[in-house]
Every structure is written in structure tokens, then in C-alpha cells.
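On clarity, I found the account of how folds are encoded harder to follow than it need be. For illustration, here is how one protein appears when written out as sequence plus C-alpha cells.
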Amino acid sequence: MRGTLTKDMALRAVVMGGDAVTAVMLAANGRIVQLQSGAAPAAGANTSSGAVPPYAKGKTGKKRPGKPGARDGHQGHRRPPPTIDRREDVTPITVCPDCHGHVLPPRKHRKRTVEDIKPDQHSEAVEYTIPQHWCVNCKKHIEPGLAAAMPGATIGNGV
């Protein structure tokens, strides 16, 4: 269905039988939906790369060669951990945030360091002790949220 459908093509499909008519109708319907949605046409062999929009090109497949980090036996280059100014304990939770079911008391604790800038323009490193609970319904470890920083971030929200 790259070109226009003529009356002669439609009659030939009718002569070929019901399966051919169904195939032509489905192809025509798909093309109409594609044109109405404004989606980019499929790139052919003669289509230049500049004519295809970037969102229609898909993944490039390029990956970084080799393993990240220092070679085996070499010292890694990393920013040293900050000196901890104060320590805080995060309050345990009693209800699972996902299923709202009962959670068991914490058995393990995890430490997370967050660096932030105080209002007086000095940096402060806070070590949070986060309890890990077990949800009976979800069958997974649950931790209370930390409002001082985004998940996975080492820099606080005050920066």
C-alpha cells in the first residue's frame, strides 16, 4: 500500500477471493490511520537519513567499549567520601506504601550519605540510617522514603 489503490486493483482482489479483499482492506485501513495520526512514513532504501525524524530512527546500538572504571590492579579515581557532620535515624514505617499491608519490624539498616548546602552557604554531610522492612503481602523489602534527597542521589534538595 505504498501507492494509490485503483479500481482495477480492487476488482482483482474481489476476483481472488475473500482473503485478498480482507488483506487489501486491512492494509488500506492501516495506511489511513498512519496518515491521520501524523506518524512518519517508514524509511525505505532510497530515503535519506535526514528525511527520517530522530524519534522514528530507534536505538543506535552504540555502546561504550570495554568495562567502565580503572583497569585491574590500578587505583580507581573517585571523589573521596565526605566527612560526616551529623547522623540521623529515619523513622520506621508500619504500613507498606505499595499495597498498604502490614510490614514486619526492621531487621536490617542501610546507611546513606547526603550532601546538602545549608542556608548559610556551607556544605553539610548527613548520614541517614534507613530501616529495611519486609512486606508480608508484596514479599519484598520496603524502605521509608527520604525527603532530604531524590532517590539514588547523593546531593540534597537544597542544592
The chain has a mean pLDDT of 83. The helical segments are 7-16, 18-37, 54-57.
